[in-house]
Amino acid sequence: MSDSPAPLADPHLLFDAADGRRDLVILGSTGSIGTQAIDLVLRNPDRFRVTALSAAGGRVALLAEQARRLRVNTVAVAAEDAVPALREALRDQYGAGEPLPEILAGPDAATALAASDCHTVLNGITGSIGLAPTLAALKAGRTLALANKESLIVGGPLVKALAAPGQIIPVDSEHAAALPGAGRRHPRR
Question: CA 133, 137, 143 angle in degrees (round to 5)?
């Protein structure tokens, strides 16, 4: 892997893991975008490592399975009442004596993960609740793979004011159209 920066990110935004993999946080991991991202990560273990996952809390068995497969450090759910079921699902997935990931819960849990130590945050959360994690990732200097269109609809001026050039990678053409210049560039392969 080259030490040159990716075309979509300023050099100050880049910090790859010592082994050359990029540390990712996936928000909305049990949804369509999140599950597709996890499939990509699992097919490219030499390029990516997922450190944390978040979900709303309605699919705790899937979240626990994802956590085990990816060996994440932290999982988060927005629904605090989902924590007991999540903890049980994690125990079912992990072996006896194997440490479980840290669990964060509540409406700000995904926002905390978005600001955590990683290279890239994929925001696949549905709805306007995805705005706070988007802003947190940008403020923390993380590269943001944005699949949450509401961040741009509801908070467009805030998002654009916080984002450094190339800090946001649009996940689809709808986001690229809302971010001038973003759709013409391609991330490093």
Answer: 130
Distinct helix (H) and strand (E) counts, the chain:
7, 7
Whole-model pTM: value is 0.83
Distance, C-alpha 147 to centroid of its chain: 10
Domains and CATH numbers, the chain: 19-179 (3.40.50.720)
Type of residue at 8: L
32 residue type, one letter: S
pLDDT in tens, 127-155: 999 999 999 999 999 999 999 999 999 99
Q: What is the rounded CA–CA span in Å between residue 167 and residue 163?
A: 6
Determine contact, residues 7/166, Cβ cutoff 8 Å: yes
Q: Distances from the Cα of 29 to the Cαs of 119, 124, 181, in angstroms?
A: 17, 7, 28
Tokens of 3: 């030490």
